[in-house]
Amino acid sequence: VEMDNTGEVCSALGHAIFDYDTLKVVHIRSKKVGMINRLIQLVIIGYVIGYVIVYERGYQDTAPVAGVATAKLKGVAFTNESSSPGPGVGTRIWDMADYHIPPQEDGAFFVMTNMQITPMQTMGLCGEENATCTSDANCQEGEKLVNGIQTGRCVEFNNTMGETSKTTCEIISWCPVEDGSLKKSYSLLGNDAKNITAYIKNSIEFRKFDYQARNILPEIDDPAYLKDCKFHPEFNASCPVFRLHDIFIFMYGSRAEEQWQLATSLGAVVGIDISWNCDLDSLTFSCRPKYSFKRLDKINASVSPGYNFRFAQYFERPVDGSYIRHRNLTKASGILFKINLKGQAGKFSAVPLFVNLGSGLALLSIATLMCDFITLNLLKRREEYRDRKFERAEVDDDLVLPLTLNENKED
Prior knowledge:
By secondary structure, the protein is of the alpha+beta class. The chain has eleven helices and 14 strands. The strands form three sheets. Strands 1, 5, 6, 7, 11, 12, 13 and 14 form an eight-stranded mixed sheet that branches. A hairpin with a 5-residue loop joins β6 and β7. The protein is elongated. The model has no long low-confidence stretch (mean pLDDT 85).
């Protein structure tokens, strides 16, 4: 008996390994179901071939863009502030060495359009602007304030114009401290900065395909081209020279002047996107940059609007026979332009083509599932279709192996 049981187990195991099962196919002659089936198949085939393969270039392998972008500015601005409050600006010409800070930066460039200059600062003792006091008791020696460390004395505050208006706590600092009351409510360089131009030099590569390019197109061979061209999205989209005010026109249209005055007065952050979406196949080759612009900082922010920072220029001057270290402190406001590279290149490859075709063939099973649902649940003869599709077999619920073991125990 044990040998018979062993034989049955081996036979069942052999059938499980070597037998092959196939799905039962029921051929249904129904015009409605047939039309629905073919319509769904056509939609899936159209989606795979038309959208995935052709429109989305599903036959191509892809690689992301990598590169570097720098900017060179040209143009001058003029100020005549000799009669207005606040020292350090005066009547002068501002060229690219003055308003382009720092002169080189990868992926960004800053144009100073407004400033507050505190000239001829020296290390010494002076009053802190916002630490008002009435006596020495209001000032704690050694406590750090915005611009320096308190000495514990209450003194008269002298602003950068030499005027005394209040008493404040004395500090050890660069003196005189910056006077916030002299901040300009308008842009010093705003009007002249409209005509400043930025030449953006961009070099990119797609490492997977060993392809390099730059935003000066190969067909441009005239050295004078960059001197005369100005970018325009419709009429001169290949020119990499941008007039700063034009960028605001492209972003805001009729509101450009209003937004320009706000940005040049308080400062702003503007994004320049360079998109490289390239087709590297020889028959359909295309690889040209496309430029777009957007404001990155929040306009009309109630807290800390705009964009500004401080920098200092240090020098030494003779005072009473010895050289004393001085500095000119500048609070610079302006527009920071951030250059962002994005995009990818595609080139024919059999692997993505067959992967997408295989995915499309798998999607065709959706037509069968939907037609099965319709025939088995919605048509009038659904009971007949259900009986023909599914065969029911009555099987004894008792398991063979446990019964055999029990019989052996009884023997």
